[in-house]
Design a protein that fits this description.
The protein is of the alpha+beta class. The protein contains seven helices and eight strands.
Amino acid sequence: CYQPAYSITMVSPTRSLGISCLIGIASVSNAFQPPSHHTIHSTTSTRKSHLSNTASDVEEFIAANYPSCSNLLSKNGDSMKAIVKADVGFTIFAPNEAAFIELGEKKLAQLGDVRNDEVTEKIVSYHVILEPVTADELFNSGGVVTEGGEVPAERSISGGFFGVGGKEDGGVTLNGAKVVQSFQFADAKITGIVHEVDAFISPSIMWRYVDQLRIPGSS
């Protein structure tokens, strides 16, 4: 069983994620009250690292719990360097292992192909925000601005028939990917938030550019 040696708070995906990065929202003041069935863990981080404690803790946490995502994040050095240097914190949307399986063998191979490094880096950038964005803030927003660009957010709906007659279930989706659960890390300086999502939140149009030397219009 993985035993984190750092401060970690698990929050419900049903309301808890940055601030200026939210589209159409200047500020959010609603305090998140997690349901009683979720356990909150809070300890003090004492580990020393060349990274900030929070960035290092998140890096280790993702590697242990979302290995495919960890490998993907490593393909965008610029975003990872920016996370380490973040002044107030950061947010990472981590596709779970099921999300990678859902991609299929062809797309997985394309992500690992060096010819697609530029596209892969762009896909990664859509999963990073350089400030902490809680699920509560995400729930109340119309979307977020990531390092890759804008990503729409909607309140998830359950029930109904082909999307008709369903009701909001308290969750939130980004580009159709649902936030499954959220984790918050903090040290004396910054806060890092990891949101597990069940699919990639980058625009599907990005896959049109794989197996090409460059993304059209890029420099």
